[in-house]
């Protein structure tokens, strides 16, 4: 029975051979690796020490830390188990996924056994050569032509209705007896099938010997862990062939496979081969004993791994002499500073994917890098426009040209469309720092000073729906007037209901004050969105990606 191990990723790790250097895990994933280790160890060897095979699909969307998880997990397990790590994407230049896995197993298990390249135990089995040749259709066709004197593809083509009665000739120009040709092909295929079966049996025997060598020489445990990473990024044909190889050839007792994929993306890959109507989910279920889905990290943690979030901090803005209001962060008495919490609240309201969150944040950072000194900008509003353009181009275009309460086609307002199509913007709330005390000495409000001094709301953090934030901000940015209707309504409401802390009214007055300090109108925001949206980020080669 395998022993229990503890996995801790709270500190950085540099492997003994200095090949890899892992930062501390920021996504808190060690507990999943520990759970899966014990689960797979129990599947690879039961209480009676009988060995079994097992294939697990580790599912996680792009950006969720899949590769970091798999590579660091593999590095930790080498202390206790035979381990092989294969980056399928980096090796899909090969036409043979079988050779990809076999070569990785031979090299890595030999190193873990402490053997050199000349050790006869870790040589490629002779029978495997026949299997590799048979696995390549072009080579198989060449073999058939050489030994049978005929091209099997040509015979198949001649079987079409239009070709009935035509003569098929061999390579010497002689007429071929079709009955004899078919008999030879069948005979060859039977022999080829038998050769494949023998080669597969020999291969399984060799893999078992390699694993036992590592276990015996290095005092490690069963099972052997074979990690296949980045399969969803491979070309479709290679990905499918890799799955077939794992399922039909590597059902070896004492060996467990972990195949890491973005399973939804892999299903698209499968459909690229078999058609959009193909049931890719059921098809993939044939290859895996079970599927384990890594929970997506919070957007705050995701951004701390993939983006230079320091460039969205208040300290960075201050260093650049940039004024941003309202803040992207949230400061609370209980939890302290929550970096980018308001920004990620907008992302959540739009239900962005991890990739979209990273893309949008990189675009926002690119805007900040291009702002001039003494700029006064509303980055939350800009983030809203980025998200709207990403999710609904029609609503984005309408937002730039129509007032939020203005009716257009069919007497439907932009307000109604936003609520209808983006339900979460009315539900999710931002936490905005409001300081009504700063309005007391505003010259234009002298006539209302008695109201401010008697009934002013206390400075502090207030919850405000995203829709209210957009409704007020959009109106002020488009009108550019400090004496807006919104401001008049806010003053009138506070004068009549002065015992009520009406967050929308206080936010309106403070937003109007900030807007007078900014030179960014709706045209400027549109330019920023259009310029930055042309920036498309490739998938980062981050150690935590």
Give the secondary structure arrangement, pairings included.
Layout: E1 13-14, E2 21-22, H1 30-44, E3 54-59, H2 66-77, E4 83-87, H3 97-113, H4 126-135, H5 137-148, H6 152-158, H7 178-218, E5 224-229, H8 236-249, E6 255-261, H9 263-274, H10 280-285, E7 290-293, H11 299-306, H12 314-319, E8 323-324, E9 330-332, E10 336-338, H13 341-349, H14 354-370, E11 376-377, H15 379-391, H16 393-401, E12 407-408, E13 412-413, H17 414-421, H18 424-427, E14 429-434, H19 449-455, E15 460-465, H20 466-479, H21 485-496, H22 503-516, H23 522-533
Parallel strand pairs: 3-6, 3-7, 4-5, 5-6, 8-11
Antiparallel strand pairs: 1-2, 9-10, 12-13, 14-15
Helix pairs in contact: 3-7, 4-7, 8-9, 11-14, 13-15, 14-15, 14-23, 15-16, 20-22, 21-22
Domain KAP NTPase: 49-352
Protein name: NTPase KAP
Pfam family, one: KAP_NTPase
């Amino acid at each position: 029975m395998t022993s229990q191990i503890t996995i801790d990723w709270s500190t950085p790790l540099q492997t003994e051979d200095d090949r890899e250097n892992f930062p501390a895990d920021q996504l808190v994933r060690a507990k999943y690796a520990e759970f899966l280790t014990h689960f797979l160890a129990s599947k690879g060897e039961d209480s009676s020490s009988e060995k079994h095979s097992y294939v697990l699909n580790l599912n996680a969307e792009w950006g969720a830390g899949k590769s970091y998880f798999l590579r660091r997990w593999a590095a930790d397990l080498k202390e206790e188990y035979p381990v092989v790590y294969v980056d399928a994407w980096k090796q899909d230049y090969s036409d043979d996924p079988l050779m990809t896995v076999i070569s990785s197993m031979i090299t890595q298990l030999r190193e873990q056994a402490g053997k050199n390249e000349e050790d006869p135990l870790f040589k490629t089995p002779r029978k495997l050569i026949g299997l590799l040749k048979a696995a390549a259709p072009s080579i198989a066709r060449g073999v058939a032509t050489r030994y049978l004197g005929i091209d099997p593809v040509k015979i198949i083509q001649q079987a079409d209705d239009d070709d009935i009665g035509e003569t098929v000739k061999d390579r010497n120009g002689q007429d071929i007896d079709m009955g004899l040709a078919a008999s030879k092909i069948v005979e060859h295929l039977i022999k080829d099938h038998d050769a494949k079966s023998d080669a597969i049996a020999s291969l399984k025997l060799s893999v078992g010997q390699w694993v036992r060598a590592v276990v015996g020489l290095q005092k490690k445990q069963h099972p052997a862990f074979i990690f296949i990473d980045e399969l969803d990024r491979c070309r479709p044909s290679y990905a499918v062939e890799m799955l077939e190889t794992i399922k039909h050839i590597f059902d070896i007792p004492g060996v467990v496979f972990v195949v890491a994929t973005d399973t939804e993306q892999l299903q698209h890959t499968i459909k690229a081969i078999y058609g959009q109507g193909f049931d890719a989910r059921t098809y993939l279920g044939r290859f895996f004993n079970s599927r384990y889905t890594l929970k997506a990290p919070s957007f705050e943690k995701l951004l701390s791994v993939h983006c230079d979030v320091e460039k969205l901090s208040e300290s960075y803005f201050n260093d650049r002499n940039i004024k941003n209001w309202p803040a992207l962060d949230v400061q609370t008495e209980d939890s302290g500073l929550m970096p980018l919490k308001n920004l990620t609240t907008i992302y959540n309201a739009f239900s962005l994917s991890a990739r979209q969150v990273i893309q949008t944040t990189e675009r926002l950072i690119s805007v900040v890098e291009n702002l001039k000194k003494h700029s006064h900008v509303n980055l939350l509003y800009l983030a809203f426009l980025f998200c709207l353009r990403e999710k609904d181009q029609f609503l984005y275009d309408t937002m730039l040209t129509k007032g939020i309460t203005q009716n257009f086609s069919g007497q439907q307002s932009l307000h109604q469309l936003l609520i209808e199509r983006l339900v979460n913007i009315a539900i999710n709330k931002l936490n905005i720092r409001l300081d009504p005390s700063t309005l007391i000495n505003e010259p234009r409000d002298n006539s209302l000073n008695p109201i401010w001094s008697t009934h002013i709301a206390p400075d502090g953090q207030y919850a405000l729906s995203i829709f209210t934030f957009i409704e007020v901000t959009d109106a002020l940015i488009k009108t550019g007037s400090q004496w807006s209707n919104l401001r008049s309504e806010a003053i009138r409401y506070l004068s009549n209901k002065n015992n009520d802390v009406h967050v929308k009214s206080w936010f309106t007055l403070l937003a109007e004050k900030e807007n007078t300090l900014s030179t960014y109108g709706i045209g400027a925001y549109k330019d920023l969105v259009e310029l930055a949206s042309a920036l498309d980020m490739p998938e980062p080669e981050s150690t935590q990606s």
